[in-house]
């Protein structure tokens, strides 16, 4: 678990890239916080640079949409989900609980 930012540093509709073991994108979707691996599973693009629409983010490179709640892509060209991470907010701090990578 690590502190991503203070809540006032991430207003609704914004995102931030955190440099952890793997880059993590943290989003404020209308007051709900989500964290996913920052790299699109289609090509090497930063999802934190993408376009947030509700609880979906559009990859800025080829317009793949990902559901921030599940990490599942909702359209091509992405076919694989991005890894999601639980987020908690306590005392004005946004915490990301980095998920353990799945074995392949």
TrEMBL record:
Per the record, the domain of life is Bacteria
Alphabetical keyword list? 2Fe-2S, Dioxygenase, Iron, Iron-sulfur, Metal-binding, Oxidoreductase
GO molecular function terms attached to this record: 2 iron, 2 sulfur cluster binding; 3-phenylpropionate dioxygenase activity; metal ion binding; monooxygenase activity
Q: What class of enzyme is it?
A: oxidoreductase
The record's section on PROSITE patterns has: RIESKE
**Could you say which EC number(s) this protein's record lists?**
1.14.12.19
Q: Which InterPro entries match?
A: Rieske_2Fe-2S, Rieske_2Fe-2S_sf
Question: Which positions carry the signal peptide feature in this UniProt record?
Answer: none
Q: Which CDD domains match?
A: Rieske_RO_ferredoxin
Q: Which residues form the Rieske domain?
A: 2-96
SUPFAM superfamilies hit by this protein: ISP domain (SSF50022)
Q: What is this protein called?
A: Bifunctional 3-phenylpropionate/cinnamic acid dioxygenase ferredoxin subunit
Species of origin? Allosaccharopolyspora coralli
High-level lineage: Bacteria, Bacillati, Actinomycetota, Actinomycetes, Pseudonocardiales
């Amino acid at each position: 678990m690590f502190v991503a930012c203070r809540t006032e540093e991430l207003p609704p509709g914004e995102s931030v890239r955190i440099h952890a073991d793997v880059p993590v994108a943290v989003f404020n979707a209308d007051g709900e916080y989500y964290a996913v691996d920052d790299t699109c599973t289609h090509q090497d693009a930063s999802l934190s640079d993408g376009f947030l629409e509700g609880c979906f983010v559009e990859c800025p490179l080829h317009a793949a949409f990902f559901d921030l709640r599940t990490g599942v892509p909702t359209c091509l060209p992405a076919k694989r989900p991005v890894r999601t991470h639980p987020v908690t907010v306590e005392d004005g701090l946004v915490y990301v609980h980095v998920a353990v990578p799945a074995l392949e």
